[in-house]
Amino acid sequence: MRGVTAVLHGPESTLGLGRLLGSSLGDGDVLALVGPLGAGKTTLVQGLAEALDLPSGVPVQSPTFTVCNEYPTRVPILHVDLYRLGSLSEAEDIGLVDRLFDGEGIGVVEWAGRLPALIPPTALWIRLEHQAGSRRVTIAERDGGDLSWLIDQRTPTGVGPWEESSEMPWAVPSSH
Length: 176
Prior knowledge:
alpha/beta; 25% strand; 176 residues; single chain; Rossmann fold; disordered C terminus; eight-stranded mixed beta sheet
């Protein structure tokens, strides 16, 4: 199996998927998010932060203009947006390469398809797409890692069921 695919019914199910991931991830894990504007990337990060006990009053917002936000959760989250970066050297200049490979906290990279060389090989790639009033999510590991840990968990309301997929979320070009 290369990955798994499911349909997300509404924003609450996208938050639920983020919570599910947050209950399973830890230091050194990286999520590489791809998908068009408005597909739910930041909503997924909001659910992830909630599961990791984000203090109330701390907003989770897209880092499109700041490039990087950090959240003081139980396992710190580094939330990166590559939408405005043009090259790997720009990412290196601001320290993103070091941060994503340092093994501290959870890295979440929106628009990861713009600079795939920046993403660690063990990252979990997640593609979110619009689909007739809902969203479709595809999840895979580039190195072919086993996703049974995800499939075996109780699926959040409005998500699923998971289906095996031969799709590669990182191979689809990101569009603005």
